[in-house]
Design goal:
By secondary structure, this protein is an alpha+beta fold. It has one domain. Helix content is 35%, strand content 15%. It is built from 5 helices and 4 strands; from the N terminus they run ββααββααα. Helix 1 packs across helix 2. The protein is globular, with a radius of gyration of 14 Å.
C-alpha cells in the first residue's frame, strides 16, 4: 500500500474502502452508505445511520473543531475492533505522528484475543 499523503475525512469500511465526506456531512453520507448496503436505520429504536455504520464495523474519520485534532470513532463499546485492513490504512498516518483521540490511542493495539 502506498503511503497516503493527507488524512482524508469520511467513512472507512471494514475492508478498507474510504467514502469521503466533509465534517458536517457524515450523517447524510452514512444514510447513503446504509441505503446502498441495505442496512436499516429507520426503526422503533430510532437508530441513526452513523450508529448503524459503526455497529457494522465502519470507522468515522473526522476532525474536531473544538480541539483542532483528527478523530477516529468506532463502536469499541459494542465489541467492534479494527480490521487488519483498517489498521493498514491508518498505520502510515500514525507513523507520521497523527493522533486520533484518547480512546482510539488506548485501544489501537488491542485485538479480539486480548478483549475476550
Amino acid at each position: 500500500m502506498n503511503k497516503p499523503k493527507e488524512f482524508k475525512l469520511g467513512w472507512l469500511s471494514p475492508d478498507g474502502e474510504l467514502v469521503e465526506c466533509h465534517t458536517f456531512d457524515h450523517i447524510s453520507s452514512a444514510s447513503e452508505i446504509c441505503d446502498k448496503l441495505g442496512y436499516s436505520y429507520a426503526n422503533a429504536r430510532g437508530n441513526a445511520p452513523d450508529d448503524v455504520l459503526l455497529a457494522h464495523g465502519w470507522l468515522h474519520l473526522t476532525y474536531s473543531m473544538l480541539d483542532h485534532e483528527y478523530r477516529i470513532y468506532y463502536a469499541y463499546f459494542n465489541h467492534v475492533r479494527l480490521t487488519e485492513t483498517q489498521k493498514a490504512y491508518i498505520r502510515p498516518f500514525k507513523e507520521m505522528g497523527y493522533t486520533f483521540g484518547d480512546l482510539f490511542e488506548m485501544t489501537w493495539e488491542e485485538n479480539d484475543e486480548e478483549f475476550n
